Amino acid sequence: MEGLVQGKVALITGAGSGVGRAACLLFSEHGAKVVAADINGENAEETAAMVRDAGGECIAVACNVADPASVDAAVAMAVETFGRLDVIYNNAGITINPIPGKGMKSLAECEPDEMKRVEDVNINGVIYGSQAAIRQFEKQAEEGKGLGGSIVSTASVAGLMGYGGVLYGTTKGAVVQFTRALAIEVADKGIRVNAVCPAGMLTHYAGMNPDSEHRERILQGMGAAHPLGKAIDPRDTASAALFLASDLASNITGVNLPVDGGLYAGRKVGG
Ligand SMILES: NC(=O)c1ccc[n+]([C@@H]2O[C@H](COP(=O)([O-])OP(=O)(O)OC[C@H]3O[C@@H](n4cnc5c(N)ncnc54)[C@H](O)[C@@H]3O)[C@@H](O)[C@H]2O)c1
């Protein structure tokens, strides 16, 4: 049976860990040729090796999404290696480092430098990735290599509702609105633009440790916060991104899809 993204070339950022690594493996299982991009080139290479070990096609590239030249180079590498680009998954993201033993910083505690760093990665990183992909999609269309392409980004449920750090949520809210506005701008070019909005996942994000000896207890706690009662796994988020990237979603654009066990839908009143 054909995979959901059979033969498509997908560039995935933040590919060295968590959701990005899960997405590289899942997109490859579904037939994509994958470019695993991460600011940590060693971790990206480790992901690429995992994909190849599983029988897939994958190259790694060291890429800082906050630097447009670095993003352009990653797209160029995808085209040089696999001949084209069909999907960019703008997944890389960071948050303000928590205060050890105290947790998330309040807005009043955040410093301008760290605020700028989070904005650069979470907002500009998505913008630069989308720009580079659109330019490549347009070039392919001009060369008669097919119209359109698919852009997926990882926003967060924190971009839809008050949830966790204020500044982080603000950057993800920007991704949510960017997704809608860009979807309208490029719809007539056959380019679809969507985002996934996960709730908390146990990854290396925000200084968490997915290999913690308390893993099961942490996952239980995370799950208890959602109506469905299960913690979100990075592969749950990667699955939503895969669907949005695939032709199954060929008439879906401008959507910010929660992957949150029902958290954003609301809460039961009483009983
Ligand atoms: N884990 C959560 O609770 C959670 C919840 C909602 C949304 N998200 C979002 O999911 C996405 C993936 O996060 P994760 O949980 O897998 O975290 P993670 O820390 O495990 O992985 C993030 C990856 O992004 C890479 N990265 C960081 N800055 C980069 C840059 N400038 N350029 C390229 N790569 C960079 C890191 O090296 C890392 O490999 C992020 O956008 C994050 O904001 C995470």
From TrEMBL:
Gene3D superfamilies the record matches: NAD(P)-binding Rossmann-like Domain
Source organism superkingdom: Bacteria
UniProt-listed PROSITE patterns: ADH_SHORT
Entry-linked InterPro entries: NAD(P)-bd_dom_sf, Sc_DH/Rdtase_CS, SDR_fam
Keyword Ribosomal protein listed: no
Keywords: Oxidoreductase
Protein family membership: Belongs to the short-chain dehydrogenases/reductases (SDR) family.
Name of the protein in its database record: SDR family oxidoreductase
Organism expressing this protein natively: Novosphingobium mangrovi
Phylogenetic classification of the source organism: Bacteria, Pseudomonadati, Pseudomonadota, Alphaproteobacteria, Sphingomonadales
